[in-house]
Structure formats: C-alpha cells, structure tokens
From TrEMBL:
Protein name according to UniProt: F-box domain-containing protein
Domain of life from the UniProt record: Eukaryota
TM helices/strands, residue ranges: 215-235
SMART domains: FBOX
Keyword Phosphoprotein: no
PROSITE patterns according to UniProt: FBOX
Domain F-box: 107-153
Keywords: Membrane, Transmembrane, Transmembrane helix
Keyword NAD: no
Length: 238
C-alpha cells in the first residue's frame, strides 16, 4: 500500500481541475491550550507531515527560543505517537482523525471539487438533500444557498423560464424563497409588484402633464418659428 498520494495527483482529471494543490494537501494552525501560548502549524504535503511550533513567552526573551519542527513521511506518521499526541493536545480529535484518514489514502475529494461542478452535482439532489447538505459545513452552506443554484432548481421545478415579474421578485427575495412560496402568495406578490410599477408610471405621466414650464417652453419655440417664417416670407415678397 502506498502511503503518499502522489499517484492521485498525477491523475489527469485531478490535475485538470486542480482539485489538489501539488505542494499542499491541507494545513492547520492553533495556539496550545492554557497556560501555554505556543503557536503550532501543521502542514500536510503529498508526501510528508510537517508539524512546527513557536515558543510564545510573556517576557522579552523569545529570541533565544528557536522554532521546533517534526517531519514524518506518511508511513512514519502512522506510527509516530508523539506527533499524534501533540496534534491531539493542540488541535483536537477531529484534526488528528483527518490526518490519519489522509495518511490512509482517504482523501476529501468532495469539498475540493470546483464550485461550478459542485452546483451541477447538487442540482440533481432532492430538495431535502440539498438543504441537509448545506448544514454540513460553511463551504457547502454558501453553495447550497447560492442564488444561481436555486434559479436552476426553480426553472427545473416549474418546467419553464421565469417571467420578467418573477425575475424582479427573485431580485427582492431570492430564488430559494420564491420556490418555497405558495402559488397564492406568489400571485399576490406579483399583483403587488405590477400595481407598484403602474403607480410609478402614472406618477411619471402626472408629473409631466402638470409641468407648465414644459408647455410654455414648447409654445415659445412654436411662436418663434412662426414669426421667423412670416418675416422670411415678407422679405421674399419685397
């Protein structure tokens, strides 16, 4: 069994979509539990685990403390209890379990897939599954609540392209809320939006029709043109 993932990184599909960084698989940073304030940094590369730490002191004597570092290959990391204990103490069970899974070749492909591909995959899930997936992490919460995804779901659910009034409502409330809005409530919102647009157009017409300055200006131009034509005609007759 191979203990690094270099063979995975060479996969043309993985390389094309840049799912994994060629230099970094994952990294973590944390401050050690009290009373210590030491800073720890864990870097996982395609072939090694690198744990670094910096001594943090209240006194102005930090210059005499050099950073520490532990480096292990994937195979060595599996047996390195000291690194396990340090990661567990500073970064917790979840980080240690994550490291052991990476070490065993259990890679977290899903969260690394580009968002545009994730949206296409999520589009085919049931609505309940989309909502549940959005609760698993901050990354999936952003994707599963994105307006672009819910617009596609709305079009697929309603089996038709949305009308312009529906597009306007979506700008106000979002496609997700619009999809779960009852048809009766949606009709009420559309009617209200139509009435508001009608009122705005009526206000524009009213403001124009009651603007005396506009008509006086037009009348002045018309009278000036007539006078000019009369003068030109008179001169021509002479």
């Amino acid at each position: 069994m191979r203990h690094d993932i270099t063979s995975v990184l060479k996969n043309p599909l993985i390389a094309y979509y840049n799912i994994f960084d060629s230099e970094k698989i994952a990294e973590f940073a944390a401050i050690a539990p009290a009373p210590s304030k030491d800073f720890y940094h864990l870097l996982i590369t395609p072939t090694k685990f690198k744990l670094r730490w910096w001594k943090i002191t209240l006194r102005n004597d930090g210059a005499k403390f050099h950073p520490g570092e532990s480096v292990a290959t994937y195979e060595e990391f599996e047996q390195d209890d000291r690194m396990h204990n340090e990661i567990l103490r500073v970064m917790g069970h979840k980080t240690l379990d994550y490291c052991l899974n990476i070490c065993a070749g259990k890679l977290d492909y899903l969260v690394r897939i580009p968002n545009k591909i994730l949206v296409k995959i999520i589009f085919y899930l049931n609505l309940e599954d989309v909502i549940n997936l959005g609760t698993t992490s901050r990354h999936f919460n952003e994707i599963c609540n994105s307006d672009s995804l819910w617009r596609e779901i709305y079009v697929n659910t309603t089996l038709g392209q949305p009308s312009r009034p529906v597009e306007e409502l979506a700008k106000l409330f979002g496609w997700k809320k619009l999809l779960f809005t009852s048809k009766l409530h949606l009709q009420m919102q559309l009617r209200r939006l139509t009435l508001e647009e009608s009122d705005d157009n009526e206000n524009i017409r009213t403001n124009v029709s009651h603007d005396p300055g506009l008509y006086l200006g037009k009348l002045f131009v018309l009278m000036s043109t007539c006078i000019l034509l009369i003068i030109v005609g008179y001169v021509s007759c002479d």
